[in-house]
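Both lines are quoted verbatim for reference:

——
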Amino acid sequence: MYSDLAFIWAGLIAFAVLTYVVLDGFDLGLGILFPFAKSDHDRDLMMNSVAPVWDGNETWLVLGGGGLFAVFPLAYAIVLPALYIPIIIMLLALVFRGVSFEYRWRTKRWKAVWDFAFFGGSLVAAFSQGIALGALVQGIEVVDRAYAGGWFDWLTPFSVLTGVAVVVGYALLGATWLVLKTEGSLEIQMRRYAYVLGVATLSLIGIVSVFTPFQDPVYFERWFNLPGSLWTMSVPLIMIGLVWTFFRGLNDHRAASPFLSVLGWFIVSFVGIGISFYPMIVPPSLSIWEAAAPESSLAFALVGAVILLPIILGYTAYSYWVFRGKMDPNEGYH
């Protein structure tokens, strides 16, 4: 029973993190693309496209972090000091970005400053998330159930590579979101950007995938030995189909399929990382069951999750449904 509850919670935490990535990813990507808009009007449209949903997107970050603290306290106690600097930088960037989202509408004199803050906060937050991901993949040094590494163990060529990959991937998500939500010259511009960013993202996914098995012998064994190789072989096959639908959608001037295809890229990549990690929650040495809270705590927290998760999913789905379709360029956030 204990192992079942820990496994369920690991799945819930993974789901919350993945949902945050795919929802707030296009939000951050839009900010990364902000300086490339051709006019203030286009920047207003870009921001208006996410104004109704961006706050709700970050709910999943809180849920993932809070859930990790509640049900995997040992993992939280190890991961936080290991990634303290990139996590703090990410949170400060998100705060800066949120403030700029509100203030840029209240001033003309300082609008350019807040526009840059929106771009900078988005870029830094995305890069920090990629750095943290790379540091987690390459492994965290644990001795006697405590973090035993240094302050800057997270900063390596591999983590910088994953940081760049996340920035480019988020920018692609932002471009395809704007293809979905806008019309006219902005849609044409973002459709053109999506081609370039799509090729760059696929290249970076390939490079990261080549280096990942060499970060730990366990990854290499799981990727290239049965039965793990059966799972890892399915990942590129699914990606091929998603890549085809992405470029087909762009060529056929479809609005939704490029965005949905890129969401699929992120989901498949996330599953690939999960295949490498499992059953470790803090690679390479701390498993889900070793890091889990007592069974009574897992069961108690699960009751709350069963109640709250459908509510969160419901209002998230409802907000996207209400604001579905192309934007009216004459309406927006004020």
